[in-house]
Design brief:
Shape: elongated
Structural class: alpha/beta
Strand order of the largest sheet: 3-4-2-5-6-1-7
Largest sheet: 7 strands, parallel
Length: 329
Amino acid sequence: LLKQIMQSKHIIVADAFISEHSLQLLKKLTNLPVYLYPGAVTEDSPYPTVNLYPNEAQFTANIVNDLKAGKRVLFFTDCARQGDKSKFQQLCEYLDQFSCHTLVLDADSIQEMERVNFSDSEYQLVLISPVITSGISITEDLFDKVYVLGKQTIHPNQLLQTLFRYRRAESIELHLSNNYFAKPSPLSPLQILIDELSSTPLPEITNEDFERLKQSPAVKVLIERKQIEQQLRYQYFNNFLGLLEIHQFPLQRIVVDASLTAQGKQHLQAMEKPSKSPWRPRTVPEYNALLDHENTEQLCLGDELLHTFLVTLLNKLNIDHATLEGVCS
């Protein structure tokens, strides 16, 4: 790529997030002036308003309440990058009980993305892991709310990219964890290069090859980029808010709501509890026992929703509740 750039007479770059670093690099490589056209300027920001939540509990309570109200939700979180996927799995399993139909897109199911027709889908909740931070756009008018939960496991600029996955969003609900994990010590340029080589399926290289790589302009650019990303990880919260400001995202700080925060804390505690038993189909006697329950308020939320659904369904089909026998009209 660098060789092609250096041999070209004219270069046109189109990028919504082009940086000063990229512009300076182009100027250095070509020794030509760089002309920057910022596009049409409008009074209103072209970007969605970001509603920043003060705590994860209030953020979680809002998601649950929106799902219970029947709203369709697109939810991105990077908590799957925590080493194991337990946090992401807990989140998926817990929120699924409030959704009539859930789709999870992660490293294991990303292939499903090609077969999903979002315009015809009936998914109430779509959960997306860090496997999608760019390159995917959902343009149909499908979701009522977009939620983003940042746990500081991807770079701030990658998290910023996730705000664009649903192009029709007018606002985005965001909670950004302030202290999620211990920051690693900064890597030296040599350590960055060694890390990159160890994660790349290359044949064994000699010391001579290694020295030549260190002097390669392309490798130097890559290392420089990695160092910038490394710097962004420190003071992550402030750097991310700075990126929002640079790109002129309208920012709305949500005030603490004590009632919602208390609700959310209960949800977060319930999320941490392991499942009592794996899911299995229910038998007809179990359905009957559920329908015969005298006080539905004593049921867990999943059973209460199921009870309401069954009663409505059986009424529509003119089927007797006591025996589950009848004739469909």
